[in-house]
Write a structure and sequence with these properties.
Elements (H helix, E strand, L loop, with lengths): L10 H13 L4 H8 L3 H14 L2 E4 L3 E4 L4 H9 L13 E3 L4 H11 L3 E5 L5 E6 H9 L14 E2 L6 E2 L4 H11 L3 E8 L2 E9 H13 L1
Parallel strand pairs: 3-4, 7-8
Antiparallel strand pairs: 1-2, 4-5, 5-6, 8-9
Helix pairs in contact: 2-3, 5-6
Length: about 210
């Protein structure tokens, strides 16, 4: 997809937009005539402008200008991004695991947040680096201290669901000032952990959107 800002369009694409604004709906053949080019030469530009949302096309009618600004098109595209398409694999530990083993798991898996499940494999808590650091500073035996003593519990856990808009999940990360969200499936027994959404996932999605 072409970037949505008109400043990034090439000169010919800008001319096409001006023609469609003035004369639309207009066929590709008529646009080509106005520019003294072949229809085949314009086909890639028309495809880019249509996919990016600047133009729309109707069979036997032609191309017409959507009238949307770059920001409006960007907003529309952002609202098409869904959590399930960008989530990653969650790192889940048992609530009875020791804090020492949780620290080892965090380093081995190279993550900043661990999700804690109960005996029914449902979301019971979350462990952050800060939680584990605070526990390690104390005088307690980390080999015998279970993570359910120090984890953040429901209802103080912020989470998202698979079908949620990515932009809404991103707002949760910002508002709560956290690095990761558990992605859950809500069933009658509890919240099943099905994924992980991090600031890195969000960044990758936005970069992919910009680069097409």
């Amino acid at each position: 997809m072409q970037a949505v800002s008109t400043i990034e369009l090439n000169k010919r694409q800008e001319l096409i937009l001006e023609i469609v604004k003035e004369s639309g709906p207009i066929t590709g053949e008529h646009i080509a005539e106005k520019l003294n080019l072949t229809r085949a030469t314009l086909r890639p530009d028309l495809a880019i402008l249509t996919m990016a949302g600047f133009l729309d096309a109707r069979p036997r009618v032609g191309y017409f200008y959507t009238g949307k600004s770059g920001n409006e098109l960007l907003t529309e595209n952002l609202k098409k991004l869904i959590v399930k398409d960008y989530q990653s694999i969650p790192v889940v530990i048992s609530e009875n695991l020791s804090v020492y083993d949780a620290i080892c798991t965090m380093f081995l898996e190279d993550v900043g947040t661990l999700f804690v499940s109960d005996t029914s494999s449902h979301l019971a808590g979350i462990l952050s680096r800060k939680d584990l650091l605070r526990a390690s500073i104390g005088k307690q035996d980390l080999n015998t201290l279970p993570v359910n003593i120090i984890m953040t519990r429901m209802p103080n856990i912020t989470y998202c669901e698979r079908e949620e808009l990515l932009i809404d999940a991103a707002k949760k990360l910002i508002d709560r000032q956290i690095d990761a969200l558990p992605v859950v499936r809500n069933n009658k027994d509890g919240l099943e952990i099905v994924g992980r959404l991090t600031k890195t996932n969000i960044t990758k999605a936005f970069v992919a959107l910009a680069e097409g």
